[in-house]
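REQUEST FORM: STRUCTURE PREDICTION
Request ID: SP-0412
Submitted by: Lab K.M.
Chain count: 1
Length (residues): 476
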Amino acid sequence: MTVTSDKLPLKTKILYGFGASAYGIKDNGFSVFLLYYYNQVVGMRADVVSLAIAIALFVDAFVDPLIGQMTDRTRSPIGRRHPWLYGAAFPIAIAWLLLWHPPEASATVQFFYLLTMAMLVRITLSAYEVPSLALLPELSRDYHDRTSTLRYRTLFGWASGLGIMVLAYGVLLVPSETYPVGLLNVDGYSTFAIIGACIMAFAVLVSALSTHKRMVGRYKAEIGQPKTAEGFSEMLSAFRFKPFLLLMFAGVFAFTNQGLLFSMTPYLLTHVWEFGSAEMTLYSAVLFIGVVMAFLLVTPISKRFGKPNGAAFFTMFAVIAGTAPYWLRMIDAFPDPGSPFLIPILFTLLVIGIAAGIAAMILTMSMMADVTDAYAFDVGKRTEGLFSSGMWFMQKMVGGMGILLSGLIISAIQLPAQAVPGSVDPAIVDNLALIFVSLVTVIGLAGTWAYTLFPLGEQDHSERISKLAATMPKVK
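STATUS: Completed
RESULT:
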């Protein structure tokens, strides 16, 4: 095994991060549009759609550890991860196109079509994302450089997701004579799928190429093959590693809130705030301000307070800023729909909340890289792919729970299909806001506490790397 603490060049960080555009487009599609599309456009029941999406997420989550272990054990002239990175690009694009073109068939056939295509998209993305994230601890062993590198993955992931959302709201899903409600424009979803598929395949290939030379050189310089978790019992042993379990515990709350927030956004903006296409487009665009804020703030806060405390701080701040508009609305202390003050105040609070939530996610991913080093130091096995898959396993399981909760909420409040903004019974809208904000608050506060339990810090990391460097060759 080789050890290096050198930082990544800026160009490599940017191109490596660009690969997250594929995940950003997929995540945006699943979290923001997929439930709405199959419910309001295709005509499936919301609880049935959310069930299909949740099942697909759960199945994919159990596939991730297998992918992670297989990437750890892959041996090829171009290393352990890159065969997976290159091989995933075009299957991702094909599966994405099929997902957004369901057949006209019975409800049962459409359910199984959605379930199958959703699983294919998830699994093919996993074949890229698991080994891609596993590259991080191998690319750089510098404690804060990992956070800096992940900023670019997050920046491109969110930029691509928000970019295609702006395109959808502003160009593709606009009202027409055939579709007076823009979000019901079926032709727009087809174009949305085609554009997304092209970007996803291109981003995956660019990211793989950007790290090819650096990583292949390091694989060739390794002395012998690294030890990995070979059997099922060794996989379970790795997943019982205490720092890993504590990080997963915190992540459960964070990613559940993320799934709930994203899948509820079209309903909240449409019916609570009565936004039309123009306001939805503006919302998508200004969210990028939150991404930039997270990009700029996460490293300074992490350096000052440490990753665990920084994640706890950001999680708490996300709850306060993100839920304030809904709590204030309940006591008639927030501008009503149509007020000139609504958009400036609402967007300011939501952007701050989004920025804090994104920063917490960056630190969570960065802490996972520290977990892999701690495990390699304590046990002597390289399991970057396995721990990377554990992160995605948790994210997908609880993200699916967030989407499932959203579908259950929509069904429970009995929101009518193809509901026009402003025409829904106010009691239904009030219930929508109350249930949403209550869940987000409780889950977010639990996540804030959970992050403070994570045991690994910068000093621990520096000591481990120094001891490893004293006994192993350093690769330039």
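NOTES: The domain at 12-413+420-470 is CATH 1.20.1250.20 (Growth Hormone; Chain: A;).
Reviewed by: T.R.
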